[in-house]
């Protein structure tokens, strides 16, 4: 991807944090009929593996050994030039879009092991049910139903060969403009604007730290 140095994020802990906070990825590979994209949540296992599962009918279930690209996207949003103090001084500003993404390149492995697959489902479920008042657990379902469901899916694992992050959060603007963007996002209060503000503030803290 196009990656100007000012937006490049290389710290592993920051990249891994985005994957954990936004685990729903777009996975792209080159299939028999050209590029194919699928969408699924992943669990980051340690620092070197992404683990998930797909239906047996999914192209990924037949892609053992294929090179893939998994893209994770955090909050994003339109940035108005009206939010920049410099715009009101010179008029020399234009709209843009702020966002943060992580790209993972690696080779896919398809896993048929039912014990491994059930363990992954338990990890995924326990993680995403943790905020519920009465969390649902895999073991709550009847065993015969689980056995039936497990036969319909396969595990997929991506060994991370290369990881890159692009955090485009107004770093190429002076402090006053970045503050103006944060203020503008706060006033707009769109669906993802609070999350985008948090990303920008975290980037400021990392820079100052």
What does this structure look like?
The protein has 209 residues and is of the alpha+beta class. The protein has a single domain, classed as Roll (Pnp Oxidase, Chain A). It has helices at 12-21, 85-90, 114-129, 143-150, 175-188, 193-208, and strands spanning 8-9, 24-31, 34-41, 43-45, 49-55, 67-79, 96-111, 153-168. Strands 1, 2, 3, 4, 5, 6, 7 and 8 form an eight-stranded antiparallel beta sheet that branches. A hairpin with a 2-residue loop joins strand 2 and strand 3 (34-41). Helix 5 runs antiparallel to helix 6. The longest helix has 16 residues, at 114-129. The model has no long low-confidence stretch (mean pLDDT 95).
Structural class category: alpha+beta
Unreliable stretches covering 5 or more consecutive residues: none
> So, the CATH homologous superfamily?
Electron Transport, Fmn-binding Protein, Chain A
CATH topology: Pnp Oxidase, Chain A
Q: In percent, how much strand structure appears in the residues?
A: 25-35%
Whole-Å distance between the termini? 28 Å
What pattern of helices and strands is seen along the backbone?
EHEEEEEHEHHEHH
Number of domains: 1
Query: How many H/I helical runs?
Result: 6
